[in-house]
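Saturday, quiet lab. Running sequence design on the structure tokens for the scaffold JK sent over.
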């Protein structure tokens, strides 16, 4: 491991240059890739990485770039996974977004939506927003609005909109056809008996009736004679199949809860196994994307359509996408939202599209992130840093720069006159200038001030050099303006036009044990420069040497930002 210090230095410099602040988590993987032996003593390796990060954090960008000249950086060009669909015909592809309106859209939905959209665009096809709204117990109109907003925010579109609940009469006709053919039957068994029979591979005695008798019971379900829980319609599958899905699955059940859209018009509702396959076929979907979790149900999908004499679409199976320690399960998240531990479904700690938007994640970053996985069944659980890296690439060239001072320490600079200067809004792009007030009383970050001692010289970024003459017991620093010279450290500052400011920093929602992380939202309190008064709610800016932040709210003369990346 003789080259380890050099390898660490190389990657710390590159990470700091690219993102303004080096991140140990993003660096360690690259170090291990070049020096696998360092894994034998990870404690020492991480200590060396953090020590180098501390050293490099004191350099300005030009000094970092100069040191990078000691190394050769070969940019790894990743080939994006393709979206080629064997057999797909140009101009004839029809895909769908099939959300159930039972919750807020999240990063997993974004993957399926963006893949479907990209396939349709590639083949000159059509896109349908199809609401899988056949479970009245779980669905609400508010979720339709949230999903439509999410799709619009992703900057993808669709050609038409359909509701599966509008097709219930057609689905009733198809169910009657199955019963008449002897391929489905009325079952009055209790749920626990159904489950035991499927486990024992034994069909219940309900099947022994004639098709006409089963049709009669079906009509009783429809006309209200049979109470809720009094019976279901099951497919005659294969009770001996090793695929448990094929052991006489339920196709229709009675639900008397009013539907958000249909009211009490229908009382018998299809299960997803029936609705999903039938609606793909009758609506002309050619290439439906299905999550890998449904792979065992694909056999049932095809079997059912063939029994009905309906066209079988070309299914595309993909893996689910979940971000490590950022769960998408409504069962897990709803108690956190309802208990007040989270702000709501748009909490920036959540991987919901509304939460990601509130965190300052760009729609293109999400599209690029999810499309990078392509059409693949390989399971993936990247951490949030992978998405944030995509976001930084997009924000860096477009975000105006400002100063933010966390945990401010007062600095009195003798010889510094009251004045107003202008600083660039962006170091490379022509975004104009911003006015900044200067006085002899300034404020600098506590993290920087804590490292200073009397006699040290540092530079107030874009202003002047200061030599420290005294540090009192409260930490207040007194210094004087000294002639410009090359100094090792530049720091951010604010002056009398300061604005009280809070930067909320989202972290992993879950801890290592999978429980709610009580430290998942931290905050940095301090001052930002007066020019920030012109920032509008929702704007994303870069606080130099801190990171990209989105203005969440303005209240009582104070600004609250959410740290993005």
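Result came back. Writing it out in full:
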């Amino acid at each position: 491991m003789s080259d380890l210090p050099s390898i660490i230095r190389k990657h710390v410099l590159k990470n700091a240059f690219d993102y303004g602040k080096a991140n140990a988590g993003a660096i360690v993987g690259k170090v291990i890739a070049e020096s696998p032996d360092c894994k034998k003593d990870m404690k020492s390796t991480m200590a060396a990485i953090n020590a180098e990060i501390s050293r490099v954090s004191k350099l300005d960008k030009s000094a970092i770039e100069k040191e990078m000249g000691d190394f050769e950086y070969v940019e790894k060009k990743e080939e994006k996974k393709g979206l080629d669909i064997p057999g797909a015909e140009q101009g004839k592809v029809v895909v769908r977004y099939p959300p159930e309106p039972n919750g807020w859209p999240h990063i997993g939905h974004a993957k399926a939506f963006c893949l479907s959209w990209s396939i349709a665009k590639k083949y000159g096809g059509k896109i349908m927003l199809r609401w899988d709204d056949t479970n009245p117990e779980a669905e609400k109109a508010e979720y339709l609005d949230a999903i439509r907003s999410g799709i619009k925010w992703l900057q993808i579109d669709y050609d038409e909109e359909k509701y599966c609940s509008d097709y219930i009469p057609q689905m009733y006709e198809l169910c009657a056809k199955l019963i008449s053919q002897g391929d489905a039957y009325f079952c009055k068994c209790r749920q626990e008996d159904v489950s035991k029979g499927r486990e024992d591979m034994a069909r219940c005695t309900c099947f022994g009736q004639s098709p006409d008798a089963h049709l009669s019971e079906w009509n009783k379900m429809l006309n209200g004679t049979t109470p809720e829980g009094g019976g279901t319609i099951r497919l005659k599958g294969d009770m001996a199949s090793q695929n448990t899905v094929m052991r006489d699955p339920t196709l229709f059940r009675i639900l008397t809860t009013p539907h958000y859209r249909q009211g009490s018009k229908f009382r018998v509702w299809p299960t997803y196994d029936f609705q999903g396959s039938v609606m793909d076929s009758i609506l002309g979907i050619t290439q439906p994307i299905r999550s890998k979790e449904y792979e065992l149900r694909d056999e049932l999908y095809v079997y059912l359509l063939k029994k009905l004499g309906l066209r079988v679409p070309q299914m595309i199976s993909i893996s689910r996408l979940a971000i490590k320690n950022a769960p998408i399960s409504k069962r897990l998240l709803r108690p956190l939202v309802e208990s007040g531990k989270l702000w709501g479904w748009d909490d920036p700690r959540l991987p919901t599209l509304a939460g990601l938007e509130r965190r300052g994640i760009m729609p293109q970053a999400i599209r690029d992130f999810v499309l990078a996985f392509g059409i693949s069944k390989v399971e993936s659980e990247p951490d949030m840093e992978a998405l944030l890296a995509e976001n930084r690439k997009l924000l860096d060239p477009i975000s105006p720069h400002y100063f933010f001072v966390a945990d401010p320490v007062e600095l009195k600079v003798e010889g510094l006159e009251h004045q107003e200067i202008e600083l660039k809004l962006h170091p490379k792009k022509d975004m104009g200038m911003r006015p900044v007030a200067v006085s002899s009383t300034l404020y600098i970050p506590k993290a920087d001030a804590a490292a200073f001692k009397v006699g040290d010289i540092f530079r107030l970024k874009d202003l002047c050099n200061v030599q420290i003459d005294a540090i009192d017991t409260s930490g207040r620093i007194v210094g004087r303006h000294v002639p410009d010279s090359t100094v090792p450290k530049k720091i951010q500052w604010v002056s009398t036009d300061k604005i009280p400011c809070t930067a909320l920093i989202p972290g992993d929602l879950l801890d290592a044990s999978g429980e709610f992380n009580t430290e998942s939202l931290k905050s940095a309190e301090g001052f930002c420069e007066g020019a920030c008064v012109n920032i509008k709610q929702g704007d994303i800016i870069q606080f130099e040497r801190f990171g990209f932040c989105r203005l969440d709210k303005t209240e009582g003369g104070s600004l609250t930002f959410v740290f993005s990346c």
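Notes for JK: Residues 75-80 have pLDDT under 50 and may be disordered. Residues 4-19 form the longest helix (16 residues). Ask whether to fix the surface positions before the next round.
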